[in-house]
Amino acid sequence: MVASALTFLPLALVGLWRWGVWTGKVLLARTYRPFTDDPPDVSVSVVAPVYRADPDDFIDTVFTWFENDPDEIIAVIDEGDREIIRRFYQLVENYDEFSCIVTPKDGKRPALHDGVRRAEGDIIALVDDDVKWRSDTMVEFCRPFADPTVGAVSPKQIVSDQSTLAQRLYEVQMRLQFAIDYPALSSISRSLSCVSGRTAVYRREAIETVIDDLATETFLGKPVISGDDKFLTRAIQANGWDAVYQSTSVIDIGAAPDARTFINQTVRWTRNTIRSDLMAFWEGWVFRRKWLAYYNVDRFIATFAILLAPVYFTLSLTAGLYLVAVGILVWWLLSRSVKMYPYLTAYTGGFSLVPLYTIGSFLMSPVYLYALFSANAQGWLTRGDDTRFGFPPLRRRLVTSLSVGLVLATLAGYISLLLTVRY
Q1: Tell me, what's the pLDDT at 88?
Q2: What dihedral do alpha carbons 350, 354, 357, 359 form, nearest 10°?
Q3: What is the helix (H) or strand (E) element at residue 141, kind and residue range?
Q4: For position 389, what pLDDT does the model report?
Q5: What whole-number distance in Å separates Cα of residue 360 and Cα of residue 365?
Q6: What residue ranges are annotated as transmembrane (predicted)?
Q7: What pTM value is reported for the model?
Q8: Per the CB 3.0–4.6 Å rule, which of 24, 206, 280, 285 could disulfide with 238?
């Protein structure tokens, strides 16, 4: 068995491509500047769909919004959350800015729809019920709206509780995303892949023309349950509005405390992304924003490309190419350390996460593939009865898992052939 340079040519080419893309995004991100214009004289409405929130934490969260002095705070509360309804109505009685909608409807999309239709503000902020604002969050996210072409603004997110490994790894992901991807896209194309629903801020004229479609969206004939933020981001940009990132507006978010919940959420988020990106290409408008189109395609292909390194590593070990395997391992750690620089410069001792984040990124690739093959499976982890959407979960998971296994086996067979053929 002879391992020549040709054996590892696919891995080398993919590595050069990924480093080229990353370098380009970093350079573009460095051209980003937050909006510094004085905030326009506008009214602001906060709309918060509430479902199974902790009552004490929710009330504390509400007051972080209230301290920013919005004109109104509308909570759309599921009818089953009796304690939260009782406590929020106490606020309604004492403060003119508060109003409440008690809803029997399943799902976040109908809650957002009803809240937006009730809202009267020039700017409407859609906020998750566990997201806390800082003292200047609202002032800062209003600044971009001084530009009349801006229809949506995404603040910066920071994971507030990082007491578990899963939460720390999620903060790594958020830190890289908001240090590189968001500023790069916002700077070069005034567009975003997603204005995250944690706090998504919209101009009234932009959102009111698409909000009715939010509750009726379908994909391949099925009603779409989650991915409200992806839909609104796509629909608003399709109508010609700009979506921008404002790094000086900061929100504090929660994160799944355990790996199982985080993986399930990642599957759901990835499905939402795949569906929305496919719709953007189908609708055609995304080609008017060429950098966003390129970003979406690159992100999709990278899901498969990242599989090459761990498969090469594993097969190198089985083929007895130990020096090659060690070289791949060392390169992983060095390259990830460089790419994690936004996190490593923000957190002392962050280097301890480099090996775990490296392993985690490779382990998540099959998860992304699973999401791809089950992209039309609908449902939430926490809202309503998810089993009523699509075909039975057990059969769906079996078919999807077999499909992912087939892709991995094909890739492994191809690389194994490269390692064993003499050139």
Answers
A1: 96
A2: -160
A3: helix 137-142
A4: 40
A5: 9
A6: 311-334, 346-371, 398-421
A7: 0.88
A8: 285
